[in-house]
Amino acid sequence: MSKRIDTSLKENKGGATGMEPNHEHSNIMKHDLQYRVLFDKSPLPMLIYELSSYKIRDVNEMAVSHYGYSRAEFLSMTIHDYRPKKDIEDINKILEGLVDKDRAYQFGVYEHLKKDKTIIKVEISGYAINYADKECMMVVLNDVTEKEANLQKVKDNEQKLLNSQQQLSLIYNNVKDVIFVISVETDGRFKFISVNKAFADITGIEESEVIGKYIDAIIPEPSLTLAVSKYTQAIHHKQKTTWTETTPYPTGIKTGEVTVTPILNENDHCVQLIGSVHDITALKEEERQLRLLESVITNTNDAVLITEAEPLDEPEPRIIYVNNAFTKMTGYTAAEVVGKTPRILQGPKSDRAALARLSAALRKWQSCEITIINYKKNGEEFWINMSVTPVANEKGWFTHWIAIERDVTEQKLAEQKLISSYQERNDILESIGDGFFAIDKNWTINYWNKRAEIILKKPREEVVGHDLRDLYPELPGPTTYEHYKRAFEEKTVQSFETFSPAVNRWFDVMVYPSESGLSVYFKDITEKLNHTRAIEEQNEKLRAVAWKQSHLTRPHVANILGLMNVLKNEGLTDPEKKELLDHLSTAAIKLDAIILEIVNNAKETKT
Fold this sequence. Notes:
By secondary structure, this protein is α+β, with helices and mostly antiparallel strands. It has helices at residues 23-40, 61-67, 71-75, 85-96, 145-174, 197-203, 223-237, 281-299, 324-330, 334-337, 352-363, 409-431, 450-456, 468-471, 478-490, 526-567, 574-606; strands at residues 5-6, 46-50, 56-59, 104-113, 119-131, 134-143, 178-184, 190-195, 241-249, 252-264, 270-279, 303-308, 319-322, 368-375, 381-392, 398-407, 435-440, 445-448, 494-500, 505-513, 517-524.
């Protein structure tokens, strides 16, 4: 309505106004009557209320019928009385904000309260009118409760569908199994139309490289021929088909359990195949490993014994499996030991301390290794090295013990013989007068005899297990270490004398290489060297004496001899003889002085 409607929907429904009716008045009355009929007989609830007070001024029959209030009750109410309190403030704001009252309004959908307190949803439209000289609003109240409920159901269903699609998409692209959809073409060929993320993860082929491609461009032989035959079988029988295939892909050779299900159209023709592949590559590898392990356990030379995990106290875990090596080692068959405890192998000489250590480890669910004497079925003793390990199930609960047992009797006898040999060797090394020590290939001292303690002034507990170079960085000098290195590298015996500043002594050293390191024998030769040097010094002095004797006395002796020969001449005069005798006396005196000096030097040499 473009104008406010002036109507005589008033108390004077007959039109008695105190004026004579005329033609114009007659038309108004006719219009009012038609409007009144439309108001009263409207199939939708209608009411009129004052805009200033919100007091209801009139209601039609449908409003009375639909809401349950009587006409008198309605006329005593305001439009707030049939509304929830939460909406009143918003309604007031809307009505107070009306600026142009000369038009129709679509107020929207609101909640109303029937007389029985039932809440309904009402779509409200209104018309501003003048009623009994009051600014009023005539409203049509269209109950859309069921419509809104149906609409909400549609929205809920749409949301559920959307959620379902999102969940399916999430599942489709996050499941670990490969999922694919293949179209069955009219020519009998098969084309990929969808693959999930797992397809790319497992095969290494991206989705963009697969979608729209025929399967023969993706699946290599011989898997292609197998797949086509299985697809054809599923289509022909119109039922799910499952098989296992192994196929090489960029990510490696994969083994999968494949299932395809035919999708039929309204004509019962297969138009698509939905497939899934469960990657069992790891499972197949585990099976192969288990078969290999089973073969190893069956054929190994070591005895394998499996027991229950509990009880750890009496009667103790029972044996549930032994391999062939166990029978060969002990003489017991599997039937003779299964159901019994490993104690049947123990006897008087079984090391109780080692068994106690094993028991303590078992109670802590820890692995343990011991070497003890066991007894064969015939009572014969033998040494075994036994390694026991707990086995847990997939939940982490320990269910069994596995014992690997190796016959080390020969090794133990050899060790005992070697220990005896070592003891004999040690007795010898401790009794010799030479110092002795041994080092391994890392220069670590592993033996140091008593004489070495005395000579080098270091107790063995301070040196065994230490690097010789760290203990004696200057011992016995750089040349010594050169001999050691040469013995290591050339595997040759080294013999040398050297002086040790660390102890201020001279040593005669013999170095013998072996596969395990070096054996070093050394003796203190300081006194011997000092004695030798003293003798050499004395000899030097004696040589000096001899030199003097041979070089200083000889001229004088020759002179005397010459003078004596001249004296024998009979033709000499007395003066000449006297002169010769004087010369002879002088030579004798000089010779005597030299002899005296030689004697004195000889005495000094002796002292």
